Every structure is written in structure tokens, then in C-alpha cells.
């Protein structure tokens, strides 16, 4: 019985990986073994950094809220404590946007919780 190899699937798999490696420099874009490793590492970084991106944005929002709160004589922790105590259900993303782009609206929130 002749040996059976699934060349169609093999070629499709390689084609898919080489397509993902498009735009890479040097052998990373067209040599199968190098491209496979490069794509695998890139996907690992992408997965990791999707999580890190969320952390980075949260810290950015906290910095912006803190800056806005300190203009009104409050620290970030005091501000967030009073926000929770007064049942104001605005998340950090919205509060940071208000502090940055609509300081008068942010000031109104600070005056309401004081």
C-alpha cells in the first residue's frame, strides 16, 4: 500500500502562516521554519499585550482622574471613595474623559460629592 500524505492540508497550513508573516523582514516572511517561529511569537505577544493594554488604559484613567480631582482639592482615593459613597455609577473611563475634555462637568460632579 502506498504511503499517504495529506499535502493539501500541509500546503494550506503553510500558506496561512506565510500569509500571516507578510510584511516581516528578511527570511521571516518567506522561509517556512523561520516564519512559523516568528508568527508563533507574534501571536504570543499579541495575546499578552491585549491584557496589558487594559491595564495601561486603567492606569491612564486613574492618572487623569487624579489630576482632575486635585484641581478641586481632593486626592484620587478620596474622590473615588466619595463617588462610591454617593452611589454615582460612573466608571473610570467616563470620569477620565470628563476630567480631560469636560472640566466643568467634572467640577459639577466634585461639587455634588463634597
UniProtKB/TrEMBL annotation:
<comment type="function">
    <text>Binds directly to 23S ribosomal RNA and is necessary for the in vitro assembly process of the 50S ribosomal subunit. It is not involved in the protein synthesizing functions of that subunit.</text>
</comment>
<keyword id="KW-0689">Ribosomal protein</keyword>
<dbReference type="InterPro" id="IPR049946">
    <property type="entry name" value="RIBOSOMAL_L20_CS"/>
</dbReference>
<dbReference type="InterPro" id="IPR035566">
    <property type="entry name" value="Ribosomal_protein_bL20_C"/>
</dbReference>
<dbReference type="InterPro" id="IPR005813">
    <property type="entry name" value="Ribosomal_bL20"/>
</dbReference>
<keyword id="KW-0694">RNA-binding</keyword>
<dbReference type="Pfam" id="PF00453">
    <property type="entry name" value="Ribosomal_L20"/>
</dbReference>
<dbReference type="GO" id="GO:0005840">
    <property type="term" value="C:ribosome"/>
</dbReference>
<keyword id="KW-0687">Ribonucleoprotein</keyword>
<comment type="similarity">
    <text>Belongs to the bacterial ribosomal protein bL20 family.</text>
</comment>
<keyword id="KW-0699">rRNA-binding</keyword>
<protein>
    <recommendedName>
        <fullName>Large ribosomal subunit protein bL20</fullName>
    </recommendedName>
</protein>
